[in-house]
Design brief:
10% helix
Length: 185
């Protein structure tokens, strides 16, 4: 029983959570053309509305200490009000893992680097067809810790390769993510 309590204590105290919103992003490659296609209006069903520029959201959860963490990553790309309506359009989601290293801590300020493999799923909203691509995601940033909470900014690059489907080829996604992180000491 004591070993179980110690294990639970270690897991809870080493859990890390980061969530953020892209302040700026760019897609270069075949995926860009797929993501900017027109959509359907939910209110009146009119086809070929101009594409709506959406936002990218990222969530990381993992374990580690204040210097090194191993995380799972979920990122959704170009999400807008029309992303979840019936009709033509594509949803893009990145699932992956990364290792994040906080190089040093100076008066609450810490530069970080992260890298890891990922997979991107494209979901065609009209047909339900899924296309998977292999990716690598890496970035660098800075965070300011206030106790167990940190405010951070990351610059990232994600290289995705699709072998077939609407986005066949290699695409580069670049962005600047701002967010909050929960990091026990």
């Amino acid at each position: 029983m004591r070993c179980l309590q110690l294990f639970v204590l270690l897991v809870v105290t080493s859990c890390h959570l980061r969530t953020g919103l892209d302040a700026a992003s760019r897609i270069n490659g075949p995926l860009g053309a797929v993501m900017t296609r027109s959509s359907v209006s939910r209110s009146d069903g009119v086809l070929n509305l101009p594409p709506t520029s959406g936002h990218n959201y990222a969530l990381e959860a993992g374990f580690g200490n204040s210097t090194l963490t191993v995380n799972g990553l979920l990122a959704v790309h170009d999400v807008a009000s029309t992303s979840f309506t019936a009709g033509p359009g594509t949803l893009a989601t990145t699932l992956g893992a990364n290792v994040r290293w906080a190089m040093f801590l100076w008066k609450g300020l810490s530069p970080t680097v992260a890298a890891g493999p990922a997979r991107m799923m494209l979901l065609d909203r009209a047909t339900g067809e899924r296309t998977w691509g292999n990716a690598v995601r890496f970035g660098a940033g800075i965070q300011y810790r206030l106790g167990p909470v940190a405010i951070y900014g990351d610059v990232y690059r994600e290289a995705v390769a699709f072998s077939d489907g609407a986005a066949a080829g290699t695409t580069m996604l670049d962005g600047v993510t701002l967010g909050l992180a929960l990091q026990p000491k």
